[in-house]
Design brief:
191 residues, mainly alpha, disordered C terminus
Length: 191
């Protein structure tokens, strides 16, 4: 048992090294370059922007999914129609139901990490939006400064895409989770 646990730790450690090794090298090279040029403040500003966007987008997405998982689980616990034959207990389906409810949190976390990574990749557009300057020339059609289109609009477009994709993914996950739990409930009733 101890030998097996040691092998699992070794495999997880090697996978973590493979995943984080590449990022660590890029981080170190960037740090050395910014340190050599004397602009370490820009390095930390970019890193802070990436971390902030990762945390905000990942946590927001996870909160949306968590709310929907809780709602779907509560709705699935409501009693369905009762038939004269009564409910039969099928242990395999109960195990699958526990897996679906526990596995849904893992899937939500994986999706939240992916959305957080996507959010972190938009760090430059966020900094451009924060530090936008006017050009002094207005767009003839909408009357907005041209600087809005160059600096702010890309980040607003990302926010729109993020919110749209977040709600679309959470709807699909909630719909599938509700269907799976309802199918398990009705399968128990009919069989």
């Amino acid at each position: 048992m101890v030998e097996r646990f040691g092998k699992i730790i070794l495999v997880v450690g090697l996978l973590a090294l493979l995943v984080l090794g590449d990022s660590t090298v890029y981080f170190w090279v960037d740090w050395l370059w910014f340190q050599e040029t004397g602009y370490t403040i820009l390095f930390w500003k970019g890193l802070l922007a990436k971390g902030t966007l990762f945390a905000l987008t990942g946590c927001f997405f996870f909160a949306l999914i968590a709310i929907n998982i809780v709602i779907a689980r509560r709705l699935s616990k409501q009693s369905g129609p009762v038939y004269p034959l009564g409910e039969l207990e099928i242990p395999q389906l109960e195990g699958l139901k526990r897996f679906l409810s526990g596995g849904s949190w893992v899937i939500a976390l994986i999706f939240a990490l992916m959305m957080g990574q996507w959010g972190a990749s938009q760090w430059s557009s966020m900094l451009q939006c924060q530090n936008a300057l006017p050009f002094g020339t207005a767009d003839p059609l909408f009357g907005l400064d041209i600087g809005f289109y160059l600096f702010s609009l890309p980040f607003y477009s990302f926010l729109f895409q993020f919110l749209f994709l977040s709600f679309l993914i959470q709807f699909v996950i909630q719909y599938n989770l509700k269907l799976d739990l309802l199918n398990l409930h009705y399968h128990k009733v009919f069989h």
